[in-house]
Amino acid sequence: MIDSTTGLWRKNFLAIRLVALDIRKTVVMQERDYSLLGKDGQKAVKTGLAGANWYATIIPRKEMKEFIRRSDGPAIRDTFIWLAALFGFASFGVALWPSWWSAPFWLAYGVLYGSSTDSRWHECGHGTAFKTRWMNEVVYQLACFMIMRNPVTWKYGHARHHTDTTIVGRDPQILARRPPNLPKMFANLFGLVDVPLAVKSMIQLACGHLTEEEKDYVPNTERPSAIRVARIWLAIYAMTILVAIYMGSILPFMLIGLPRLYGAWHMTITGILQHAALADNVIDHRLNSRTILMNPISRFIYWNMNYHIEHHMFPMVPYHKLPALHERLKLDMPAPNSSTWQAICEAFPVLWKQLKNPEFFLVRDLPPTANPYLWTGREVAADAAE
Q1: According to the model, what pLDDT value does residue 378 have?
Q2: Residue after which a domain boundary falls, among 231, 263, 295
Q3: Which of 6, 84, 153, 193 ranks highest by number of CB atoms within 10 Å?
Q4: What is the pLDDT, as a whole number, of residue 12?
Q5: Nearest-angstrom CA–CA distance, 366 and 363
Q6: With 70 as the cut, is the pLDDT of residue 25 above it?
Q7: Nearest to 252 by CA among 129, 132, 94
Q8: pLDDT, tens digit, for every residue of 228-251?
Q9: 309 with 285: CB under 8 angstroms?
Q10: DSSP assigned state of 337
């Protein structure tokens, strides 16, 4: 049985619906085990949640072939603009260093370095940004280095994220757990949690060690590649340190490394909003993912990942076609959030309530034209029986 209650900030923002799982009229608190080797992961495998058949809006095959058709043009254009902006902002920052007049250029460079690389590694990791494979690979490797995510371990971790999106104990990339760690989320606006963990992981991999969870989803044949990349990265950072010591300046770190900290805020906000405050352990991306209508600059930084329900439902559609896919699917979707700020104001009251009651989550109404939500797969079995 599912109850609903109105969220906070109702006078100034759209009302939201909070949903609590109610068993025998009392909310049952269950401690979630997010470890990939724990009891919740084992339960997900046993109950069929792991690797389940997810709901997807039906689109005719011929039409879908056009959506997934790849091309180099849009990604070449956007990558040229991205690299030119990185070079331009860095050049002004270096030229004006150490004057405070350089600060605006470093701030802009930081967002392009520490946030936009999140979407670049993501799209090129899917192999959909460019039609030409080596172009995807070059941008993928560059973005992975800048965002400090090993291109091998994160590739397979993200594949699991798509297979088992927000399935507790299966998805290694759940950012907003229950109960949420709000101080950690705030600290990650400046990379203060993710970066130390990334450095630790890089050193461990360079020494030839994968974590037990990484061994759960990285094939044996790919592990030497993960170790080799980590050693190359470690050598680059060591060289950066030596150059900084030789120059007696932190300027080399302003170009390599530090932007991952001070430029991470945009990536952190958009990343949390992808799935935060929504349902977990369901097999319908309309229930566990969020689409947000963003301004053009954020969409460029984010490479249209704000259309996140659409991306999860059809991950092989290139980023530049997601706005068109959104229009095609909107009759079967909950209404998107009207802005990033409105999404924040929708999600964070839920996260605040989850501190005391992790079973609360948000469900949006579907339009009359939409198919009902698919919660566990039992609905499909029931329809088949009829």
Answers
A1: 52
A2: 263
A3: 153
A4: 35
A5: 9
A6: no
A7: 94
A8: 999 999 999 999 999 999 999 999
A9: yes
A10: B
- Confidence grade of residue 376 (pLDDT, cut at 50, 70, 90): confident
- Residue 372's Cβ-side half-sphere holds a number of Cα atoms within 13 Å equal to 8
Q: Which two tokens stand for residue 46?
A: 């046993």
Counted domains in the chain:
2
Q: What sign for the dihedral angle of Cα 213, 214, 219, 223?
A: negative
Whether residue 318 sits in one domain with residue 338: yes
Query: Are residues 317 and 237 both part of a single domain?
Result: no
For 272-297, give the DSSP string: HHTTTTS--S-S-HHHH--BB---HH
Q: Is residue 341 part of a domain?
A: yes
Domain residue limits at 318: 2-68+267-385
Q: Are strands 17-23 and 360-362 parallel, antiparallel or unpaired?
A: antiparallel
Out of 18-27, 253-262, 265-274, 363-372, pick the least confident. Answer: 18-27
Helix (H) / strand (E) containing 18: strand 17-23
Domain boundary residue among 233, 263, 293? 263
The CA-based angle 256-241-194, given to 5 degrees, is 50
Residues 186/344, Cβ–Cβ less than 8 Å: no
- Region 264-286: mean pLDDT is 97
If asked whether residues 112 and 258 sit together in one domain, one would say yes
As a whole number of Å, the CA-based R_g of the chain is: 22
The model carries a pTM of 0.89
Running DSSP on this structure, what letter comes out for residue 13? S
Structure tokens belonging to residue 318: 């290139």
The dihedral of CA 43, 46, 47, 50: what is its sign? Answer: positive
pLDDT class of 30 with cuts at 50, 70, 90: low
